[in-house]
Amino acid sequence: MSSSSRTQVGIVGAGPAGLMLSHLLARAGIDSVAVDTRDYETISTTHRAGILEHDSVRLLVDSGACDRVLTEGREHDGISLRFNGEHHRIDFQELVGATTTLYPQTDVFVDLAKARERDGGDVRFAVTDSDITDVRATTDGERPRMRFTDADGERHDIECDVVVGADGSRSVTRQHVEGREELFRSYPYAWFGILCEAPQSYDELIYSRSERGFALISQRTDKVQRMYFGCSPDEDVDAWSDDRIWEELQTRVAGEDGFELQQGPIIEKTVLPFRSFVCEPMRYGRLVLAGDAAHTVPPTGAKGLNLALADVRVLAEELERFFAGKDDALDAYAERALARVWRAQHFSYWMTTMLHTTEEDSDFDDRRHLGELESLVSSENGRAWLAECYTGWPNKPAG
Ligand code: PHB
User: Would you say the CB of residue 226 lies under 6 angstroms from ligand 1?
Assistant: First the structure.
């Protein structure tokens, strides 16, 4: 069986970026088809970051995608930067009048998938043999096509006005951007991430630098917590018993104030390698890239999901202009999105390098980083700058 049809926007990738775009387009009266090679179950159980910027929360709520973030999300007024065994609070609310919300990416995905289903959106999970063609679309009347086999084995060939690559960091659509420049940086460290069944140890996030290295204390629910510690990118998960993990985490947050983590059984362990990556331009012909397909950041600044949502908010606006006949709209998207991407790249790189240690670090490097942290937290301007970056910048306006 095979069928051919057409849609205005073909979206490759039905994670949070693809689904949010499809949702926003539907509200603007623009139809789309979103496909993903992963099945619903896989996406909804892949644990990712959990912090939403103020504007990401607003986007979810104001667009009618989800109210649950307001009732189940935990609003945080700040974070703690911990070093020399002491907490140094960065009060976002007081410094810049903004907050962040702890609400896991898996919940954002589930809410968006539900909203698409509720509104009759066309979303196909578990597709195979998907590809896109004719994205260059230089001659009049030429259109890109999105092809795939759906979960029931039916082959589809969909003519689209625009194709959006929202297919994550291992993006296949990105390969179609001819002449692209791929800018990246790798790091000599990774995160060892755990989920554990334990009560909360602290009511905000703690980003800690210690002689033993980095640790991040985050939460999920009253009974389940998320924590990370910096490790080598080739760390062997099986070499880490629960006892060894707890000892490492406790050492990395210990201090004269007697702060200790509440322990419990560890229910998931993963190593997350990270890197910084940007593909320029984010547009080629009738193809545009959004989210991780176009850029990746290390997780230290909690920017990944927020950047993806910021991309698609701008993209939805520009696609509306595109369908109203504005020829420059796709370029305008790429330009507006990139401006934010590079700010986030810098911030994520900066947070990462300031807080992590490597085997090669000299005592000088170590003291220099502590000097940087000291200088940051003792300056109201320094704290305000961090608060501004962490809670999110406004998008570059249209036009
Ligand atoms: C998380 O809760 O998983 C989390 C929070 C903040 C980060 C990264 C991950 O910077």
Answer: yes
